[in-house]
């Protein structure tokens, strides 16, 4: 069965490889599959598969214009020794929940899970479609996507990658990871603004016809490594199926037993992948969408009103400091009955007024989700309580998921087994994590001294990604105003 892709804002229809190559539709919409394929294999059969085998089983159902040889080659190249465990995404049980550790890749954040394979998918897609232009990956990051994308695309022939990040909106370690990135084709730009400013400007460049014509004449074409690219989203579905398979394999659940999935959420891509896994037939009871104090999504699930007109708050979970959750558009499209015209109207309203309100019928379609948020104090208290009870240390994004799940369980009495997406290594946010579990050890210490403290407290080895940046030289120092981002891109590409 061939799966094709259509825009959330019009009736454009393309193949999987074309959708990956373009990243964003010409009408500004996001590509979504025309239908969600089903998991036809018995769950017990999936439980016997390795991560690579399961990745092929799931992804081949979505990427139907890739040959078996092409897709298996992409998977083999992606999920190799850059991950520090053969399991790729191990489950860790702690205090009655199962933490899906998605941070064992080269940049110690969940973005590695998809961004390790995206360069392979994209370069394969380029060959399949006879593209002779150099692909320019244009990406805004709230902290993790940028580094993971650059690590994936560094020195990949036929590509350039330009990453924009908010100068004061990421952790020191996240920034150090980005500005020390090697690769002749990697470019990092700090902006004077927040993530939403960067993301909005990047989308405008994708939709700027004149700019696209200019770079096209110079031999370039834009594509995206953000989760707006369907090539980012499809690989994320895999690890939720894998988590269920591992619970079944380990005897923690019965075949067909429903589980809950909790996802700390900013741009909505990671939890959307879990939703797609449910639509494929994975036995999922509730999808728990966990927000920090920038709780635009929690409010949306409570009221049906998406309103970004609020104060933007910098928190200890910076990758979730987002008020415009781009991937929510894919959900809006679906609950609007796959009505591109209606979806486009909602997005136009958001762009024009800063908010939109869905219909009662659409709200009724959100019963798969529970939306909640946690404050900084609740996040830190939960991290500390989990550590004191079990010795297990989680980062501040996973901490939001942990806190919201605990509240959900208390409110509902739901005892279903629950997987919590653990989206980053605690070493990436050592200042905040040590501050949560041992505040008396923080004062006067540098980031790397606090990493040493965390190593002692957790009893875990320092990840290679941290060791690498201790002495790495800074290679990227460009800072830009938001309004100047297009000029910066043209300068980097040498387009006059």
CATH architecture of the domain at 91-108 and 231-460: 3-Layer(aba) Sandwich
Number of continuous helical runs: 22
Helix coverage percent of residues?
40-55%
CATH class of the domain at 91-108 and 231-460: Alpha Beta
Strand order, biggest sheet? 4-5-15-10-11-14
Q: Beta-strand level of the residues, as a percent range?
A: 15-25%
**Contiguous runs where pLDDT drops below 50 for at least 5 residues:** none
- Gyration radius from CA atoms, angstroms: 21 Å
The largest β sheet comes out as: 6 strands, mixed
Shape: globular
Distance between the first and last residues' Cα: 46 Å
The secondary structure category is alpha/beta
Q: CATH fold name of the domain at 91-108 and 231-460, please?
A: Rossmann fold
The mean pLDDT is: 96
The count of strands amounts to 16
Secondary-structure topology with pairs:
Blueprint: E1 5-7, E2 13-14, H1 16-22, E3 31-33, H2 43-47, H3 51-62, H4 68-78, E4 91-94, E5 97-101, H5 111-115, H6 118-128, E6 134-140, H7 145-153, E7 159-166, H8 172-179, E8 186-192, H9 195-207, H10 209-217, E9 220-223, H11 230-249, E10 259-264, H12 269-279, E11 284-291, H13 296-303, E12 305-307, H14 328-335, H15 340-353, E13 355-357, H16 360-364, E14 369-373, H17 376-390, H18 396-412, E15 418-422, H19 430-437, H20 447-458, H21 464-469, E16 478-481, H22 485-493
Helix pairs in contact: 1-6, 3-4, 3-11, 4-6, 11-12, 17-18, 17-19, 19-20
